[in-house]
Amino acid sequence: MKSAAYIFTLFLLLSAACARNSGDPDAGMNRFLDSLISQMTLEEKVGQMTQYTSNWVVTGPTLSDNVEEELKSGRVGSIFNALTVNYVRSLQKIAVEETRMHIPLIFGFDVIHGYKTIFPLPLAEACSWDLDLIEKTAALQAKEAAAAGLNWTFNPMVDIARDPRWGRVAEGAGEDPYYGSLVAAAKVRGYQGDDLGSPQTVLACVKHFAAYGAVEAGREYNSVDMSERMLREVYLRPYHAAVDAGVGSVMTSFNDLDGIPSTANKWLMTDILRNEWGFKGFVVTDYTSMNELVNHGIAADEKEAALLAIKAGVDMDMQGADYIHNLPDLVKEGKVSGTEIDKAVYRILREKYLLGLFDDPYRYLDNQREKNTIRSKEMTDHALQSARESVVLLKNDTVGRKPVLPLSKNIKSIAVIGPLGDDQADMLGSWHGSGEAKDVVTLLQGIKEKIPETKVRYVQGCPVAENDRSGFAEALSVAKSSDIVILALGEGAWQNGEAASRSDIGLPGLQSELAESILATGKPVVAVIMAGRPLTISRLADHAPAIVNAWQLGTMAGPAIADILFGDYNPSGKLVISFPRNTGQIPVYYSMKTTGRPASGQKYTSKYLDIPNSPLYPFGYGLSYTRFTYSDLKTDKSEIGFGEPLTVSVNIKNAGDRDGVEVVQLYVRDVVASVTRPAKELKGFERIALKTGEEKTVTFTLTSDNLRFYDKDMKYVAEPGEFKVFAGRNAEDVLETGFVLK
Ligand code: NOJ
Predict the structure, then answer these.
(1) How far apart are CA 652 and CA 55, in angstroms?
(2) What digits encode the pLDDT tens for the residues 56-85?
(3) Nearest ligand 1 atom to alpha carbon 254
(4) How far apart are CA 112 and CA 172, in angstroms?
């Protein structure tokens, strides 16, 4: 027999539907949710604010006994890491059929760059500068994850990151706030689509709020301290863009910010996020970050931690069981009000409602759809295109009369040497969902499929990270007897992502030594670097004639790199993070300040004794097999008033002998302002395809709105005066003009 509460829920849904039909959807939803909340006990309410992970055993996912008991008693609102339609159904059934209030669970997972089909690492894909592609990737990831029964991804990770020692640079879109904001919004649109209720979409979760990418010394879980100006102008912008794009949830970060850990930070979670930005969704902690307020030293015990978190505006507790253990008592003691609890529960239930889970808690659960969607051709085709567009060609010297790349398909023999040459697992990169190594096409396989007639031999040479030289001799002998060597170097997947900070971001293990001995043979060498962060490869850059930065490209890594190597795809990727010359140069990013003593030949200027200030490869950098020339950069006016548009135009010609794609970049510098301003700031870009010989004028529009910053009184304004305008192929190689804002 159905319980009275169940029948009541149906009645509420019906009245919500009637309200919808009468043209007032929010009123109906609100009536439904308010009535539901009024029926719930305090324990059930805090249950909705509680999330646990599902565990894994050899035979598949499982819940620990106590979580199952908690679930049955209505003390759980969400489960994450529970995968597959059958398993999700079994848990949803408990929530909907065995608990008193029958409230469906929301199922989360870290779909960071794919659920089963693994797309390039987010940092890699960001190098495409192709927002349509990025949005489509997110939509496909949502489709595949939703087909496995999931309704919530803990992505996009939009933390601006300028310190590649931090392993999580792999998960974001690099160093620039303007570009990072566009990527953040594209991903939210991709995941959530137009209708969160569609079984093809999932709720997105922007993270890690806030400024997690600025952890001191690039060390994971470390502290952040920065000016409010820097925070607002750089670090907050992508989260704000995600909120403007309608993201339904936000995750707190592990770090403290100016002494207040995010999970207890009311200024961030309530004042900025909700009151300034109008965020309507719910806030979830990062994994046990509420409990960690005790380690941070701002809470004496977990009860105080829960109090700080709820007061800050945190709605859901991930895995720590801090809320469920302490909030009921805090309410009984009068320290937390019933209204505070109801608000948090409302926000969570609202997203469940928008996902359609109250209409049909099983709507995502269709075994046939799961079978048809996962690893479908639609997924792998797009994964291949995304991988091609992610690759950045760093170097391509001319040897004899021709550039080393692209390689001829008529080549007789190739040696593929290096630990990542035939590697499946590491191509998946960090945070690879439930992607499986067996589904990955390796570089070696990609090359063999491309040129079946050629003799292709593979030698590992050395492992990724251990000091084992036993493979060197064979590597050298195979290199010597081949026409060309492809060196497959880089990081293991475990060397980037969470808890993977590195104090030295050079090639791990003996890889540099292996590379140098192969280079010493005098054979033509193409180095392919596969990593989740920029590596310090100055020596390789000096000696290898060609370098392809392929990142970790996921399931279709091999075919994509082979397409680049043999010219079936003309590389178009451009770096979204600067490549430091060595680890000591970090942080190095294009939008640094000029300082009072800009570097010059003088000793007492801002510089190093041993290296230039410029990075090895700058932001926006990436070569093509064709050659683009820039000319005729101009503005349509020499002066503009506030609010008046300025048109900037520049000519780009494909002067080479191949069709290609170029990312035309626009930067601005405010020459004199009330506070110091970056030497350059990205203000626009256009990704254009040009046939050989074709020429195009690209135009950008700027107004005083694009020139705003936080002035010395923290007002967000544009100030009159002189501005420089730059357009070009990367942050360093630009043409220059200017205008005056009156
Ligand atoms: C910790 C990570 O910081 C976060 O990004 C992730 O979403 C959660 N764990 C859940 O897996």
Answers:
(1) 54
(2) 776 777 777 788 999 999 999 999 999 999
(3) 3
(4) 10
